[in-house]
Amino acid sequence: MKDNIHPLIQRPLTDSADVSVPALRVLSEITTSLSTDSNVEQLLGRFLSTMIRLAGAQGGAVRVITDDRTHLRLIASVGLPPDLVEHEHIVSVDCGVCGKAAREVSVSSWNNVAFCKRQANDPYFSDTCSTVVAVPLMHKNQVMGVYNLFLEEGHVVPEDVRLLFRSISEHLGIALENARLTRENMRISLMNERQMLANQIHDSLAQTLAYAKMRLTVLSDAMRHEDYPKANRYVSDVEEAVDLAYADLRDLITQYRDRINPRGLVPAIQEMAKSFRRKASADVDFLNLVQDVTLSPDEEIQVFHIIQESLYNIAKHARARHVVITLDLENGQYIVNVADDGVGVQKKDESSAMGKSFGLTIMRERAARLNGKLTVESRPAGGTVVRLVFPQRTAPYQQSEPSA
Fold this sequence. Notes:
It is a single chain. By secondary structure, the protein is of the alpha+beta class. It is built from 13 helices and 11 strands. It has 2 domains: 2-182, GAF domain (Beta-Lactamase, 2-Layer Sandwich), CATH 3.30.450; 263-393, Heat Shock Protein 90 (2-Layer Sandwich). A 6-stranded antiparallel sheet has the order 3-2-1-6-5-4, sandwiched between helices. Helix 8 (159-224) packs antiparallel against helix 9 (228-257). The longest helix has 66 residues, at 159-224.
């Protein structure tokens, strides 16, 4: 049975020779987990037991800094009384040993736990724990979280284990910062999508309903004056507006139900073209002239919705029989064209009616997020071309050949 014991607890960690192989295993496991585990807080909790074994502690806890950096939130604990865990679920960043640990930039120990005993009103800090070791999780000299390890009296963490804790601190600190940035980007993306949805509702559904409301006002006035010819005309206007509003609402629901194919932009456009072909009874060709499309997920979403909006408007207004979608890359610029052979756009209408009927405001906002430009032009042979041009992202850094 001894051969199956984890190498970190098979023998005491008292010298560098003993700790080197287990240390490498721990760092390797952490590195592997960081590349495969999407939930950083679960990862921190999972490694808490490892940290306790390395330190020879009786228990431990791991906390993360709240977004406003005013509190420490407990995300996992081992060996602590349930009442203490409930009491210490969230503490001020200035609270006692934990707060001091969150302000340190190195692995530290404190033997005075009297404040903790008074604050928590729990005998754990005198009967079981006499020393607290703090391992701050750092990123650019800023604490992102902290491991607290609770030791019995007389137990000291070896220096080589402290060095290992420092490496663990850096790895997990970076993971916490990356998780924070991911949450922040998701919030920004969600806010932008909601703003675009609000704009699109305003440009279609809200304006149609406002028109219907105005027609109802004059309809009421016509009825009051018994002007039935006008009343009948206004009733027809209201019915037409309600039909249009219903169609706009169905388009919005369909658009925001659609999700980009997880395999990427090219398969998503292929699926979109196939779906449009069935719904609009028009021929749709997709020509991908780019061998390797290297877009970020956010860039793919913006391009996807611009093409989607273009197709919706073709189906709604253009009466086209043939549509061609092209994706190209020239001189570091992606070029997306959606061309149709429909009724086209008159020059005088491009800045007014087109702003509403083709949803240009929303599409141009998406193009701006790509640092690009969107134009709508009439084709000489008839029909319309929606063109999106935006820059290719900088190529990933490639390490040069090592010097001799």
